[in-house]
Design goal:
Protein name: Pupal cuticle protein Edg-78E-like Protein
Strand order of the largest sheet: 1-2-3-4-5-6
Shape: flat
InterPro entries: CHIT_BIND_RR_consensus (IPR031311), Cuticle_Struct_Prot (IPR050468), Insect_cuticle (IPR000618)
Structural class: alpha+beta
Keywords: Cuticle, Signal
GO molecular function: structural constituent of chitin-based larval cuticle
Distance between the termini: 92 Å
Number of helices: 2
Length: about 170
């Protein structure tokens, strides 16, 4: 019985030690095609260029490109250093090939006013219709423009309505 148990253990160890690609980490498996975004069985992509510099004073830059056509670069700096309006500003670009074969290129700036991308593939809003634009301009000229800011006022208005701080 001891010999049978020992043989069974050896057989289990031998079958577990068998090198089967399904148990290898994803990038160790042989590449067999498939989706570009599946993450399994993808080849290792060569880094062709990588530059990275951080000067410690708020200025930095980096750039990289890969063997499959991905590239990116960015520069950043501090604006209004030492003031209450100090802000980090970043400018850069990136590009890659989409799964449908379209070349995607984006340039951008990012600052205290947000992220502002530009690219031929990005949708753009339609123009404001003339009638609405004239109405906005008229309201601003008449002083009826409300900037949407909360003004802490309370009480009853001349018309008898309770005012909770918003200007209507």
């Amino acid at each position: 019985m001891l010999q049978f148990t020992f043989s069974l253990c050896l057989l289990a160890l031998a079958s577990a030690a068998r090198l089967d690609t399904q148990y290898l980490p994803p990038f160790s498996r042989p590449y067999s095609g498939g989706s570009a975004f599946s993450g399994f069985g993808q080849p290792n992509i060569q880094i062709l260029r990588f530059d990275n510099s951080n000067n410690g004073d708020g200025t930095y830059n980096y750039a990289y490109s890969t063997g499959n056509g991905i590239s990116a670069q960015e520069q950043g700096f501090l604006k209004n250093v030492g003031s209450a309006n100090e802000a980090e500003v970043a400018q850069g670009s990136y590009s890659y090939t989409a799964p449908n074969g379209q070349q995607i290129s984006v340039t951008y700036t990012a600052d205290e006013n947000g992220f502002h991308p530009q690219g031929a593939h990005l949708p753009t809003p339609p123009p404001i219709p003339d009638a609405i634009l004239r109405s906005i301009q008229f309201n601003r000229a008449q002083g009826g423009y409300d900037d949407g800011q909360y003004r802490p006022q309370s009480g009853f208005t001349a018309a008898g309505f309770y005012n909770q701080g918003y200007r209507y």
